[in-house]
Amino acid sequence: MRERYGSIAIWDRFFCEFARFTLLLHIQENNMLGSKKSEALLANIRNGLPMSRREKLSLIINLSIPSMLAQLTTVMMFFIDAGMVGHLGAEASASIGLIESTAWLIGSVLSASAIGFSVQVSHFIGANDFVKARQVFRHAYICEIILSLFLLAIGVAIHASLPIWLGGDAAIAGNSSSYFFVFSLTIPFLMLFHLSCDMLKCTGNMQLASAMSVLLCVLDVGFNYVFIYLFGLGVIGAALGTAMAYICTSLPVTWMTTCRNKILALKLDTIPFHWVWDYVIKSAKISFPIAVQSILMSGAQIVSTLIVAPLGNIAIAANSFAITAESLCYMPGYGIGDAATTLVGQTYGAARKDLCTSFARMTVGLGMLVMAFMGAVMYVFAPEMIGLLSPVEAIRTLGTTVLRIEAFAEPFFAASIVVYSICVGAGDTLRPAIMNLISMWCVRLTLAAWLARDYGLKGVWTAMAIELTFRGSLFLYRLFRGNWLKGLAEKPAVETLQTT
Fold first, then answer.
1. For residue 500, is it within any domain?
2. Which ranges constitute the DSSP H helices of 47-158?
């Protein structure tokens, strides 16, 4: 027993050192890149000034690096949760893996509802109309608070039955139910954290959002260690640790966004707040396709869980760990996607069509390059990545195999992530949502159900790799065809100033 907990302590110190390193890296990165340079370049976009190719690339990198760090540290939080619980055994791991897709469903609904507001904020900032940007900002917080409380009530109501609905064994249903109950109570704080960070990104302040994500990861490590091992709460301890981390970070980042931001601080308003239904209606038009997509995509993940569940607890745990480990590789793509959404949103609001197209193509190329490299890293180090999450040999072997299958699809996964982010920045959400749904339901799930019968979890992940390649190709076609920019009129005498 002493040897076991000694190895856990070593593992825990490793992640603590990683979190400390990422925080120091963020500070160094902030000093090197400088948020003031990014602010100046973003101001050039709003003011119709020319930008060279070097300046555009510099701005993309300046916005992408902190956003990548934020995405990676967010995934590390789930990686840490899964790894700490993984050392408690296969049943504990399966209890979290069973309800993980449902938790992602709730998070994706919150995210989708916020996008409709954040896109409008980004467009108004690009048009130099900061007053309207703050008005939309106020509407966003009011609507999101109401939605998060509604989702909290639903989560609490279904937490006891959910593991049974998902086909989980009786041995893991209790822990799954308790984990989901604690998660449900955390939903309002999760909403505050991510909405505040999204609004910061709209203004181009990726640095603060990144720093808060690093802090979230550090606190998650500490609280998890206390609740899981010192208090001996196991799976429930992992849920409580994550909840405390969100509570301790969501409140300060909300204050910094609403009170300290140079563009969105509410104290800058000199006119009384009035409710404007047009902002809500426009948000709904943008968000509804994303919300439906998020529900059906997460529903597809739940169906995928149902396909995996009959394969046994080893397959459930290996699938959950592989998903978590793969997240470390595709989160840089989401980081670049965040930068693309900000840049496309502001250039779209500024009506700079050529600059908007240029940023779109450059971010997609960078995303595919980075994730191709990450795919190679994942292929080589798959045994070590799964090994950090579980000491069970059967889980490690199966997880390694499916990760290596997925590695080949990473560049096309990047294309789908970044192009989708570009479309969101332009307010083009309906067709990309349809493309995602067709690809997921008609290609991935059909293939997964067929291949799982003969090849088990390896068949499920083969279907995933094929589908991601297909989806990436569809999005690349939409990008270069240019329909996502339909309706945007070029400002006269703006892009003619562009230099090469």
1. no
2. 53-86, 90-126, 130-158
